[in-house]
Design brief:
- The complex is a heterodimer of chains A (448) and B (486).
- Chain A is an alpha/beta fold.
- In chain A, 37% of the residues lie in helices and 15% in strands.
- Chain A contains 13 helices and 16 strands.
- The longest helix of chain A has 39 residues.
- Chain A starts with 9 loop residues before the first helix and ends with a helix.
- Chain B is an alpha/beta fold and 486 residues long.
- Chain B contains 14 helices and twelve strands.
- In chain B, the strands form three sheets. Chain B has a seven-stranded mixed β-sheet with strand order 1-7-6-5-4-2-3, sandwiched between helices. A three-stranded antiparallel β-sheet of chain B has the order 10-12-11, covered by helices on one side.
- In chain B, helix 8 links the parallel strand 4 and strand 5.
- The longest helix of chain B is centred in the C-terminal third of the chain and has 37 residues.
- In chain B, 59% of the residues are buried.
- The chains are: A alpha/beta (448), B alpha/beta (486).
- At the A-B interface, helix 1, helix 2, helix 3, helix 4 and helix 5 of A face helix 1, helix 2, helix 3, helix 4 and helix 5 of B.
Chain lengths: 448, 486
């Protein structure tokens, strides 16, 4: 078998068999019982050479409508933001992407330092004391936060706002089931968490309250009020935040959040049909030893030079085994690196400027929709998403938009029966005034 | 490589520098204070760096120079399958039609992506011998837990609520018991026998009506094939439990033995190991789960199906465990794995396993005279040496691992599995040449000689790296987990 990934020659093979003292490779598999031995080859597609496979796969990719060709107004947790070109150049350095987890710090200082910088940037944005090296994504990070809260408070009920991403809520429920934790959703009113209902539901069994900031509908929750109600019952206050929005919004740490999680996809990470993205997990110092996943800490070597290591590993699965409170091993290190590069490139000014543009452009879109006669039911403050009511099926409207080169918003009827014919429109800094105007015009034309 | 500290990005920041340019705002400007409620507008700016684009590139280039990857040199880290990461995979994953598509687009506009996912599932079904595969789990540990949650739902659906225990061998990855705990099970350990295999008598003793599942890696973490796999399966199935396959070591048995044919009911795969999705410095991975027919109703929702030549997600799954991840898994990694499988084909994947196993056995025989070999029989894709002979001379396996750094190698996995004293777990993979294996063996043999003749050089290693051994106790005692401006 000759293949560009397989350097074995016939000569190598025969020399190696000699050293082992056998005459065929088959002898190395003789311990597989005859009854379970697989004979022959897999019934899968034959190998394809590089050029032919590249051509086939590029044609397959071309069947998809991508946000490079289409102007996308779809958000709902995954966004088309500006990705500085430099991000891909950095993460393409294979010293980073072909490395394993940095368990040998002497030859992994690059990765370790990059993660330490990532942890710092997440702390800066969220206003929390410390952050881990990343989680799979925002949804599983929120779910792990729920499990942490239940273990920490020894309480068995989580209150999650209905205005949290519905797929995140689904994930929270599955993780909670594993630990026999009850999940109760808190209803919303006018697109934000209903504080009266929240207060009613909060009791001494409540481990934590979870809200999203800005929430699934783009609205900005009253974190001060949630904090006050939550801590009055000694429950933990968990915020799932969009870290880009924190460029201009008061960070959850300032409001007394105990845990802030979210997804850093907004920073230089491709939409990639939903993954891999990059969850983050930030806490107050009091929860430091309960954080899931890997943490990088600063220390010194034998000569007193500054260096970085994975630390507080006693929390983790490979040490604690069945006593571990989380089983996470691999996280999203390479995407955390991508996010770090994007946060670095945008920097102190850029994150603020982009976040501001998102709010202002969304405000422009909101006014344009209202001017065109659309109802925008939720009138609270927003970040980069608004809900618009349309006359008729959102799916049909989106089909029409696609023909005009536009990817329409998210059909809220898919997740909430009360919101049939409502669409969640995301307007990032990537969308031009012309594209916004075209969207409003086309949607009007489709439903006038 | 420079040995001086590489400054943190925050230490080279300078007010007034930028690393980006954004188009001018093309809609009317609005004062944010009129759009945000009082108290919601951030007062203190986040202290992110202020650097130019060249500053950024130099910074990360310097960091990359302080990092060892597979492309830097040999990386025989046992159980991690550090094989070559094909560059073609990286290019394909970056095609706009794969990288820049949104998970909530209308299905009609992403048929190419769905076709790829579906075909990958079909390939993984054939490779594992299972009946259905989900691509939703994001990593191996996530897949383990997903499968255990399905087993739990299966037992609960049968009214078998007393099945609260999951059995794992003493040689198992730490993730196995951790996943069992997170899925709400109690972990029971089954002993290994003197051959390094699961002790059947002990298994019979611990298995019973409270058994939910046995989690097994085959070949196990010693690189040994569990020859009594059918008996193991019979014992577990006999008491009504399910057999779970940890796919971490699948590279050892492709085209040789399929989990589905060995009696396993479910399996997770690590696409970032066997199927070359890169490790990324610790992720992202991808951990698909395959199941036999009985467990299909419990698969995470949604399930990708093909109806009249169109691909669509089926959300109508009344017995599903629910959703384990937003959207549909780590698609970007799945694209890479698919590209790899299609590059190799059936004969290629068979050769992968044969060469991986040949390489491991060759190295084991070259090294056996110099180190203790606790289990002296043909191994599969990896083998475990013991450093107890060297320990008697005052040199620990950790020291020898650090000494390997001076030769430009990433050391093997050490002190694992737990049932080998001073263990050194070596996995060469099939993508390494005989010259590389020989050079590494020569280095390890030289180190064994140094242990006898000049132990200090090993005990004080490494000598050539950018930094020497780090004070881990200090790091843990007073943790500094972020930069704070002096």
């Amino acid at each position: 078998m000759k293949h560009r990934y397989l350097p074995m020659t016939e000569q190598d093979q025969s020399e190696m068999l000699d050293v082992i003292g056998i005459s065929s490779i088959d002898e190395l598999f003789a311990d597989i019982p005859e009854k379970v031995r697989f004979k022959g080859e897999y019934n899968i597609r034959p190998a394809k050479a590089e050029s032919a496979l590249l051509k086939e796969l590029s044609q397959l990719a071309a069947k998809n409508a991508d946000s490079k060709q289409y102007a996308s107004f779809l958000g709902a947790g995954v966004y088309d933001h500006f990705k500085p070109i430099i991000v891909d150049h950095v993460i393409s350095r294979s010293e980073f992407y072909t490395a394993y987890t940095p368990y040998q710090p002497e030859i992994s200082q690059g990765e370790l330092q990059a993660i330490f910088e990532f942890q710092t940037m997440i702390c800066e944005l969220t206003g929390m004391d410390l952050a881990n090296s990343s989680m799979y994504d925002g949804g599983t990070a929120l779910a792990e936060a729920g499990n942490l809260a239940a273990a920490h408070t020894r309480r068995k009920k989580l209150l999650v706002s209905e205005a949290v991403h519905p797929e995140y809520i689904d994930v929270v429920k599955v993780y909670a089931k594993g630990q026999n934790i009850e999940v109760v959703t808190v209803p919303m009113t006018d697109g934000v968490t209903d504080m009266v209902k929240l207060e009613e539901l909060l009791d001494e069994d409540t481990a934590a309250v979870m809200v999203q900031y800005p929430n699934f509908f783009g609205q900005i929750e009253d974190l001060a009020k949630v904090e006050q109600l939550t801590h009055a019952q000694k429950a933990l206050f968990i915020v799932s935040a969009n870290p880009l929005a924190l460029g201009v919004l008061t960070p959850p740490g300032k409001f007394g959040a105990d845990i802030t999680v979210g997804d850093a996809q907004v920073f230089g990470i491709a939409e990639a049909f939903g993954g891999p993205h990059c969850g983050f997990f930030a806490v107050t110092t009091k929860l430091m030893r309960k954080v899931p996943g890997r943490l990088v800490g600063e220390t010194t070597d034998e000569e007193g030079r500054r260096g970085y290591v994975l630390t507080l590993q006693a929390r983790e699965q490979h040490i604690r085994r069945d006593k571990a409170t989380s089983n996470i091993c691999s996280n999203q290190a390479l995407n955390a690196l991508a996010a770090s590069v994007a946060m670095t490139a945008l920097g102190k000014k850029g994150v603020k400027e982009i976040a501001t543009q998102n709010i202002v452009k969304t405000h422009y879109a909101k006014q344009a929709f209202e001017k065109a006669g659309f109802e925008v039911p939720y009138q609270g403050a927003h970040f980069n998403e608004i809900v618009v009511k349309v006359n008729g099926s959102v799916a049909d409207a989106n089909k029409g938009l696609l023909e005009k080169g536009l990817i329409g918003g998210f059909d809220l009827g898919r997740v909430n029966t009360n919101l049939k014919n409502h669409v969640l429109i995301a307007v990032t800094e990537q969308r031009t005034k012309e594209e916004i105007d075209a969207l409003v015009q086309e949607m009007g034309a489709l439903h006038a | 490589m420079h040995k001086e500290n590489q400054p943190l990005i925050f230490e080279i920041t300078k007010a007034g520098r930028v690393g980006y340019n954004l188009p001018e705002l093309d809609v009317p400007e609005v004062d944010l204070s009129t759009l945000l409620p009082q108290g919601m507008q951030r007062e203190e700016e986040a202290e992110l760096p202020e650097v130019s684009e060249l500053d950024i590139m130099r910074h990360y280039t310097a960091l990359s120079n302080r990092n060892h990857g597979v492309d830097t040199g040999f990386y025989p880290l046992g159980s991690c399958t550090m094989k070559y990461n094909p560059k073609m995979n990286e290019s394909v994953a970056r095609f706009p039609g794969f990288a820049n598509i949104h998970p909530l687009q209308d299905e009609a506009s992403v048929q190419g992506a769905l076709e790829l996912m579906y075909d990958l599932q079909e390939h993984l079904i054939e490779i594992t011998g299972m009946d259905e595969v989900t691509l939703q789990p994001a990593a191996g540990a996530h897949g383990e837990w997903t499968a255990l949650m399905m087993i739990r739902a299966f037992h609960e659906a049968n009214g078998d609520t007393q099945r609260t225990k999951v059995i794992v061998p003493d040689s198992a990855h730490g993730t196995n018991p951790a996943s069992a705990t997170v899925a709400g099970f109690e972990t029971i350990t089954v002993k290994s026998n003197e051959d390094g295999l699961v002790d059947l008598e002990d298994l019979r003793r611990v298995a019973g009506p409270d058994t939910a599942a046995l989690m097994l890696t085959n070949p196990n973490t010693l690189g040994l094939f569990e020859e009594t796999i059918l008996e193991l399966a019979e014992i577990i199935h006999g008491v009504g439990g399910k057999l779970y396959y940890d796919g971490a070591n699948l590279n050892a048995v492709m085209s040789k033995a399929r989990p589905g044919d060995m009696g396993f009911d479910c399996v997770h795969l690590n696409l970032h190991k066997t199927f070359t999705g890169p490790h990324g410095g610790g992720g992202p991975g991808s951990g698909p789960v395959g199941v036999k027919a009985e467990l299909i109703p419990f698969l995470p929702s949604p399930v990708l199906v093909k109806v009249d030549d169109k691909y669509t997600f089926d959300y109508n799954r009344p017995q599903t465990i629910g959703r384990v991840k937003p959207f549909y898994g780590n698609f970007g990694i799945n694209v890479r794995a698919y590209t790899y499988i299609r590059s190799m084909g059936p004969d290629g994947l068979k050769a992968v396993t044969e060469y991986a196993v040949l390489n491991a056995n060759y190295m084991m025989r070259r090294l056996e005279g110099h180190f203790d070999l606790p289990y002296n029989r043909h191994c599969k894709h990896e083998f475990v040496l013991s450093g107890r002979r060297q320990k008697k001379l005052g040199v620990r396996t950790l020291d020898m691992a650090k000494r390997l750094l001076d030769f430009g190698y990433h050391p093997p996995t050490i002190y694992f599995p737990l049932n080998v004293e001073e263990g050194m777990m070596i996995e060469p993979t099939e993508t390494e040449s005989k010259e590389t294996l020989d050079a590494f063996c020569d280095a390890l043999i030289q180190i064994a000689q140094e242990v006898e003749e000049n132990p200090e050089i090993v005990q004080n290693a490494p000598h050539t790296t950018v930094i020497s051994r780090l004070d881990e106790t200090k790091a843990a005692r007073k943790p500094v987990l972020r930069y704070i401006k002096a």
